[in-house]
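Researcher: Structure prediction, please.
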Amino acid sequence: MANRRSKPVREGFLALLLFLSVTGFATEENSGNEAVQWLERMNKAVISMDYEGHFVYQCGTSLEAMRLRHQIGLNGPLESLSSLTGVPREVVRDSESITIITNRNGKLHITQQPAAGKLSPLKSIQPEKLLQNYRITLGGSVRIAGRPGVVINLVPNDSLRYGYRLTLDKLSALPLDLTVVDDKGNIQSRIMFTDIKITDIDLVSLQDSVGTTGMENPLMLANLEANMGNAEITRKPALAPVQPNETVWDLRSLPSGFDLVRHQKSPQTGLEHFVFSDGLATVSAYLEPLDSEKAFEGYTNLGSVRVLGRRLKDYQLTIVGEVPKKTLKLMAASIQYHKS
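Model: Predicted structure follows.
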């Protein structure tokens, strides 16, 4: 059974905020300092609390409803993310792996891969790094999911990133809303909870709901379905960390404010995965050997997510991120081929 926690919180899928009355006597500096304190509270909250809730996710013209469950287990966080609209699907994560379960035409398709990152949109961020790229201030008071919230605005200092409006629960500091806007104020994406409960939920009950007991890892529904003989299972191998002297790629001049935070490679396929972040916005770059002469070159949108493709030598470069097109182009230009 999972270890119960009733203390602070910190870590989970994206971040949000809203509330706090700002008097006419409050200076912008005081507002910024208080906003940063709220972000620090949020960081503690999203990783240490048990919570569950429903949220809607707006991305471009699409709108989805999701259910999230997050629990602190004996070996780390346990999470379950389920779709309530569209194709039935669920993603479950523990400290070791992520399992994606999709029901297509009555057949279960299951993909299992090593854990990386979080499922929850309630993610921790880096306030000290954000101050280099954003102006952080308190907004007004709002009510989200029936709870009073504190609004925090993150306004970018340049055109390389979008702006964010976060709404934090006044009592717990958990994010209730995360809205991403462009430089004209147009909404690019939004995650808003319609209800959220801080509770001792028990994700182990997932096994009981399907009549199975004694599982070594109760969150691994893929194992459960495999035992039932009704699943097509794909297991993806782990990506290995890459040292600077182990790659043919050189990062010459990344867009301002972005740093390389992860670099991994697949020993089987040769695919390399770079993750860049400015403390909030994240961009992924994938480089894999081409198995044909054709390569994806150009630019497209997947909702609010931008995708840029380019051929580099005999490799396909694909860059993905919820950032302006300009940033993707600069990121592509910063990745150069070199032979040691």
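Model: The longest strand covers residues 62-73.
Researcher: Thanks, that helps.
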